[in-house]
């Protein structure tokens, strides 16, 4: 029967649902018409009131949150409308308290710049602020209310009833609501893994936060909503470390540009390099600093400075000694002489050459430019650097040859902050994983072949390999000892281009060499074996998913996720506000069919702030008034910021509706979006599917009839979707399947107990 119904609906499958085709009238009088619809609809302000009638009736598993919408379509203006709901009760007196029901008002944002050519401008439902006080409604404009019923995991199965009361000064009505609780429970941790970004700087700016403690309080509330919506944040799981045995910092031990020995020291950009220890000096001794240097561009200026410290190792003011040099593209010796008396001038500034009488120590700094001037940054190499006490003839800087003893290197990991976060969120909230990385996988401040860089050493050197091995092996061992191994995903490179594949492969192999149990992760616009073979998790953008490749690579032990982003637009499945409601739910149905195990969205609160180029200087974007996501930063001038799409990277709204003028400190949590609610419905659907698979795999001989029915339901076809551009826009088709799955899961559960 289900297949017949779906086939009859097939001719409208791939067209947007018509407003006349959904919703059910539940009350009609001269003041207001009241109707309802399931969760997977975007009810527009001017959608017509349905003529079909049906009571409000929803179904839910235990430990599930099920949503529905009640819509007020007033014939006259109504003021001070209040909304309440009673407890749900069954015939045995069992209760699901009204406290388990969250009531939200469906708010609208004005889309003035459509996300794409097939999108439209207009007022779209998306923010879902809590219903906290009475509101007014205007005749002729729909006012939807969103109800989420959180069914306890120990609720008695069966039929429950509750009443929704709508009341204003001169009008009121009561709407009965029926809830059927199926006799099975969804798991505490969803089957679908996920990763969603959350920017702390956006929380600080839009909530007007001032302290670390306030940020932690607000972030915790966002994370609670992450749990409620069955998604996992990238998270903040800091792993601190300390490297010892390296006497220089700020530059790179360069094995490719050599004067003598194994390394020279390269410094690039606007960086300062320094000798990490203080050098003990005698103030009345003369000193000579000499070294070999070369620069990237002829006559490029670089600087050498010496600063003095007293016996307590506190800096002495006005004690800086410096020299500015014009370098050569070939190696050349330069010097800095520090005499015991007199001074010289440089560019009309006095340079007091003698060390102060109270000087006990000196520090050494190297710059590839002239600090405090407008000189261009550059690149300089040093070697054979000596700090000679001319009175004794001793070189006080033997480390100036920039050679390194591998055996002196060590790295210690500190998991104290990490463990607090992991126990709270992985163990406590059941998040499915966390994003992590390693600073040494990036190229760092090294000019040359693009390669990993860590603490001054580049990938391929024995020093880099030792430090990386200590980090990854220590990380793996700690995760394994605490039961967290497999929750991590090393997501350190995003959408690499083909010309970057060698660099990516090098980094991925670095992880695997030291810690083969760690999970490597990559997002790919062009997934393929030339890079996927060095990851445990591949994550292509949804429209690029190749089911045959996923099948092949999954059989070889790989896992695949997918992500949605600013591209492509309609008619593809997407996450935009100005798109069909079913998109976020369809993502999970496609994921099941394609055997994908995770979903990812780059951010959940990209409100743009002040750096997007979308707003005048000194102001921030108000996402409540302009929901377009703009490409941020990069010096984009005002008015020219590229548009990503409405709601891209933005699934939560800040509680502050006027961030440029309202400086109130908001310590409350976020305002979720309708898209996020619908995404959770899809995640529940995915749980249903995976639970059916589990029952099929574990079925006993007496359950074979149920197995056949379950396989048929899970074998949905073109009536749901053919591709990510050809899919049903009618939520009723998904709801029919969900109904079948819920009934089968209940039967499996009850037959297993017999």
Describe the structure.
The radius of gyration is 32 Å and the shape is elongated. Helix 10 packs parallel to helix 12 (731-753). The chain is built from twelve helices and 45 strands. With 754 residues, it is α+β, with helices and mostly antiparallel strands. The chain folds into three domains: 2-186 and 699-753, Immunoglobulins (Immunoglobulin-like); 193-241 and 409-606 and 648-678, TIM Barrel; 248-403, Galactose-binding lectin (Jelly Rolls). The model is unreliable at 1-19 (pLDDT under 50). Helix 7 links the parallel strand 36 (521-524) and strand 37 (537-540). The protein is 22% helix and 30% strand.
Task: List key phrases describing it.
disordered N terminus; 754 residues; 3 domains; 12 helices; TIM Barrel; Immunoglobulin-like; alpha+beta; Jelly Rolls
Mean pLDDT, all residues: 92
Oligomer: single chain
Query: What is the number of E strands?
Result: 45
- What proportion of the residues form beta strands (DSSP E)? 25-35%
Rg value: 32 Å
Describe the main β-sheet briefly: 6 strands, antiparallel
**What proportion of the residues is helical, as a percent range?**
10-25%
Signal peptide: 1-19
Keywords: Signal
InterPro entries: GH123_cat, Glyco_hydro_123_N_2
Domain Glycoside hydrolase 123 catalytic: 459-691
């Amino acid at each position: 029967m289900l297949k017949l119904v779906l086939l009859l609906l097939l001719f409208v499958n791939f067209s947007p649902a018509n407003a006349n085709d959904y919703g059910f009238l539940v009350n009609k009088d001269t003041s207001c018409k009241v109707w309802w619809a399931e969760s997977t609809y975007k009810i527009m302000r001017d959608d017509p009131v349905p003529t079909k009638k049906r009571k409000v009736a929803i179904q839910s598993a235990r430990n599930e949150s099920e949503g529905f919408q009640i819509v007020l379509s007033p014939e006259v203006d109504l003021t001070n409308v209040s909304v309440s709901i009673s407890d749900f009760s069954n015939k045995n007196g069992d209760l699901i308290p009204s406290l388990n029901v969250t009531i939200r008002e469906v708010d609208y944002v004005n889309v003035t710049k459509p996300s794409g050519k097939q999108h439209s401008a207009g007022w779209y439902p998306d923010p879902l602020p809590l219903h906290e006080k009475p509101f007014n409604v205007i005749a002729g404009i729909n006012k939807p209310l969103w109800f989420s019923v959180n069914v306890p995991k120990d609720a008695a199965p069966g039929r429950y009833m509750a009443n929704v009361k709508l009341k204003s000064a001169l009008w009121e009505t009561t709407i009965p609501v029926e809830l059927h609780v199926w006799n099975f429970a969804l798991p505490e941790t969803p089957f679908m893994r996920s990763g969603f970004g959350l920017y702390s700087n956006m929380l600080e700016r839009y909530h007007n936060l001032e302290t670390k403690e306030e940020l932690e309080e607000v972030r915790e509330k966002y994370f609670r909503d992450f749990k409620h919506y069955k998604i996992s944040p990238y998270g903040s799981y800091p792993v601190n470390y300390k490297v010892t045995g390296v006497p220089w910092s700020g530059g790179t031990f360069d094995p490719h540009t050599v004067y003598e020995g194994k390394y020279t020291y390269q410094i690039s950009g606007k960086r300062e390099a320094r000798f990490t220890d203080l050098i003990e000096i005698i103030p009345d001794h003369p000193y000579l600093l000499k070294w070999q240097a070369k620069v990237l561009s002829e006559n490029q200026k670089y600087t050498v400075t010496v600063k003095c410290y007293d016996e307590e190792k506190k800096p002495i003011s006005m004690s800086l000694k410096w020299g500015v040099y014009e370098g050569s593209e070939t190696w050349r010796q330069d010097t800095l002489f520090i005499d015991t008396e007199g001074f010289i001038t440089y560019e009309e500034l006095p340079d007091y050459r003698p060390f102060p009488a109270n000087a006990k120590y000196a520090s050494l700094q190297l710059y590839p430019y002239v600090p405090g001037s407008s000189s261009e940054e550059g690149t300089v190499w040093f070697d054979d650097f000596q700090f000679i006490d001319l009175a004794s003839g001793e070189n006080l800087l033997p480390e100036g040859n920039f050679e390194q003893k591998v055996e002196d290197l060590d790295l210690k990991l500190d998991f104290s902050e990490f463990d607090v976060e992991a126990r709270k969120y992985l163990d406590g909230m059941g998040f499915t994983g966390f994003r992590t990385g390693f600073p040494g996988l990036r190229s760092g401040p090294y000019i040359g072949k693009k390669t990993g860089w860590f603490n001054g050493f580049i990938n391929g050197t024995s020093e880099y390999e030792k430090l990386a091995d200590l980090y990854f092996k220590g990380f793996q061992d700690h995760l394994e000892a605490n039961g967290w191994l497999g929750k991590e995903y090393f997501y350190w490179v995003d959408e690499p281009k083909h010309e970057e594949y060698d660099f990516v492969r090098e980094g991925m192999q670095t992880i695997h060499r030291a810690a083969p149990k760690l999970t490597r992760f990559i997002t790919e616009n062009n997934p393929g074996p030339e890079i996927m073979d060095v990851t445990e998790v591949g994550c292509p953008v949804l429209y690029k998913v190749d089911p045959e490749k996923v099948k092949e690579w999954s059989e070889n032990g790989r896992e695949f996720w997918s992500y949605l982003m600013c591209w492509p637009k309609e008619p593809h499945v997407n996450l935009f506000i100005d798109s069909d409601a079913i998109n976020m739910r369809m993502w999970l149905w496609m994921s099941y069919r394609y055997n994908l195990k995770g979903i990812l969205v780059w951010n959940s609160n990209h409100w743009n702030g002040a750096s997007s180029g979308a707003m005048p200087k000194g102001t921030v974007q108000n996402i409540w008034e302009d929901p377009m996501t703009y490409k941020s930063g990069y010096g984009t001038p005002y008015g020219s910021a590229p548009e990503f799409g409405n709601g891209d990277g933005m699934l939560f709204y800040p509680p502050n509706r006027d961030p440029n003028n309202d400086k109130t400190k908001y310590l409350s949590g976020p305002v979720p979006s309708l898209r996020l609610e619908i995404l959770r419905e899809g995640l529940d659907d995915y749980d249903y599917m995976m639970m059916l698979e589990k029952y099929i795999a574990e079925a006993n001989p007496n359950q074979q009839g149920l197995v056949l029915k379950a396989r048929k339901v899970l074998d949905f076809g073109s009536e749901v979707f053919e591709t990510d551009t050809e899919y049903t826009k009618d939520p009723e088709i998904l709801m029919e399947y969900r109904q079948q799955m819920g009934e089968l899961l209940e039967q499996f559960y009850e037959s297993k107990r017999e």
